[in-house]
Amino acid sequence: MRTLRFLLRKEFRQIFRDKSIVAMIFFMPMVQLILMPLAADYEVRNINLSIVDHDKSPYSQKLISKIVASGYFRLTGYNASFKEAFGLIESDRADLILEIPHDFERNLIREDHHEKLFVAVNAINGTKASLGGSYLGSIIGDFNADIRMQLVTPPRFSQFPMIEVVASNWFNPVLNYKVFIVPGILAILVTMVGGFLSALNIVREKEIGTIEQINVTPIQKHIFILGKLIPFWVLANIVFTIGLLVARFVYGIVPVGSLLTLYAFISVYLLAVLGFGLLVSTFCDTQQQAMFIMFFFMMLFILLGGLFTSIDSMPDWAKVITRVNPVRYMIEVMRMVILKGSSFKDVLPHVGVVALMALVLNSWAVLNYKKTN
Amino acid sequence: MQDDRVIVCEKLTKRFGDFIATNEITFDVHKGEIFGFLGANGAGKTTAMRMLCGLSSPSSGKATIAGYDVYTQTEQIKKNIGYMSQKFSLYENLTVRENIEFFGGIYGLSDEQIRTKTAQLLQRLGMQNEANKLVASLPLGWKQKLSFSVAVLHEPKIVFLDEPTGGVDPVTRRQFWDMIYEAADSGITVFVTTHYMDEAEYCHRISIMVDGKMEVLDTPTNLKNSFHARSMDEVFYQLARGAKRGD
């Protein structure tokens, strides 16, 4: 234990003497949490729309202004022919083409006549295309209903029974995207900071050669690993706390659940992430190797973590992978506690899994760290 | 014979695949002795030394260091030895004082011991003014002297020095050897590798390795006589000329 004290003192001195690390620890969470949620938004806006209006009637004008007024579209072309408009798609200046046929107005007004509009979608950017297509569809549907209201005298009771769906969003009532993404980004940040710092640290000592001087001392392996684990655990907790403060004061996100639950989970979770970093570092001889390996796993963890895409819609094999992905549990717990107000009992299974990971990874790191080779 | 041997080495061998870095070396080193371990680059000196320090596991052969076995008791060995590697390996981003404190603490010295030893050490090295400077800012000669002092801080039975004076100026080298003699006088056995033949003359006994084998082992005087050489330089030349390995 005495030895541990000396190790910790040394690590903290080295960390706080390294200006770039200190800067990263404090600025990274601030910058990322302030910039990322503003830029990375799921809502699709600025869809470039080109319209080919063969009718040029008051009705077609009405439709066009309704579309533009929705705010989702940007009219980038008003073309005479479909061919011309298609040129815009080819040169990537349009995402959608709406073709309004001749006699659009006349056919609309004539009863019993179905009118067809043609929508062409540029599917290179999948999300933009499909969302854009459906936005346009619903606007046209709305327009259609408006016209019917005007032209057909509404009977006392609607002839066509309709089911209208009214949704109420629990836990994030106005579907504020930031409330959803900020805890997720914070989860990833803490993971990255902890994982990379710990992975690079021992490898750095290997590169400089100071590890030899350590290996020739009677220091116990688990004490050495603990001496590396604890400082980064503290640092990652600081990053997390800064992140929570940013979430609170910039986005007004106040955890619904208790902070104690959150920190209890984070404490165990960080042991797993740091253990993983340390394990990687015991396998690598250079920082470059460690960096690449960490990068590979971090990408997997993050993409399969359920932040950007829902785990429920992943194929079964991917779901299996997410079970051994610590980031998945972190993101879930963050959302559960911050948005839903889950109690410690609710996240207990998550804590259990992550604790098991921490145990396995750290024991493995201790075993794999060889003082004699 | 009264057993005052602190290093007993019998047919110690290290193989890396087909390459035999250290080939069946057999020798003893006695308490308080300054044992010179010579050889051209690539002769297998560092490999042998790493085995003796418990940093590397031997492929075959036997060896005990301070009575402890190199296969099974590496951690006990580590309590009883000091090691100064070829590559400077104190922490450059810690100060002189912090390095001393850290290694003292790792070897289990008490706070009181660390305090007095730090003061003594700084005084002997004449580095009182540099105590709170980062090690990175020190000139190489000072670093090496500090490194040696840290290696013997916990009063080990044996200290292993791997080319401790490489790249150091002659005056500092002289001072360095004074420190080695002081350590030997206080009962610490010194196991040292070097490329400087004048330094070899300072050793009580020297061995010369060629291509992984220990070719000769004797006092400098006896070696010069048996090779009809005037200096250790000549002895070394005659032996190392036949070497096939090198860098």
TrEMBL record, chain A:
Location(s), subcellular: Cell membrane
Tell me which Pfam families the record gives. ABC2_membrane_3
Question: What membrane topology does the annotation report for this chain?
Answer: Multi-pass membrane protein
ABC transmembrane type-2 domain ranges (all copies): 146-372
User: Which InterPro entries does the UniProt entry name for this protein?
Assistant: ABC-2_transporter_component (IPR051449), ABC2_TM (IPR013525), ABC2_TM_bact-type (IPR047817)
> Which keywords does this chain's UniProt record carry?
Cell membrane, Membrane, Transmembrane, Transmembrane helix, Transport
GO MF assignments: ABC-type transporter activity
What Gene Ontology cellular component terms go with this record?
plasma membrane
Give the chief site where it resides. Answer: membrane
Transmembrane segments in this chain: where? 21-40, 180-203, 230-254, 260-280, 292-311, 347-367
Tell me yes or no: is Cell membrane among this UniProt entry's keywords. yes
Q: Which family does it belong to?
A: Belongs to the ABC-2 integral membrane protein family.
Q: Which PANTHER family match?
A: MEMBRANE COMPONENT OF ABC TRANSPORTER YHHJ-RELATED, MULTIDRUG ABC TRANSPORTER PERMEASE YBHS-RELATED
Protein name in the entry? ABC-2 type transport system permease protein
The species is Dyadobacter soli
Automatic annotation (TrEMBL), chain B:
Asked if the keyword Cytoplasm belongs to this entry, the reply reads no
Q: ABC transporter domain location, by residue?
A: 7-236
An example GO CC term for this entry is: membrane
Q: Which PROSITE patterns match?
A: ABC_TRANSPORTER_2
Its domain of life reads Bacteria
Which Pfam family, an example, fits this chain? ABC_tran
Q: How does it sit in the membrane?
A: Multi-pass membrane protein
UniProt keywords (A-Z) are: ATP-binding, Membrane, Nucleotide-binding, Transmembrane, Transmembrane helix, Transport
Question: Which InterPro entries did the record assign?
Answer: AAA+_ATPase, ABC_transporter-like_ATP-bd, P-loop_NTPase
- Where in or outside the cell? Membrane
Single GO MF descriptor: ATP hydrolysis activity
Keyword Transmembrane helix among record annotations: yes
What is the name listed in the Swiss-Prot or TrEMBL entry for this protein? Answer: ABC-2 type transport system ATP-binding protein
What species was this sequence derived from?
Dyadobacter soli
Give the classification, highest ranks: Bacteria, Pseudomonadati, Bacteroidota, Cytophagia, Cytophagales
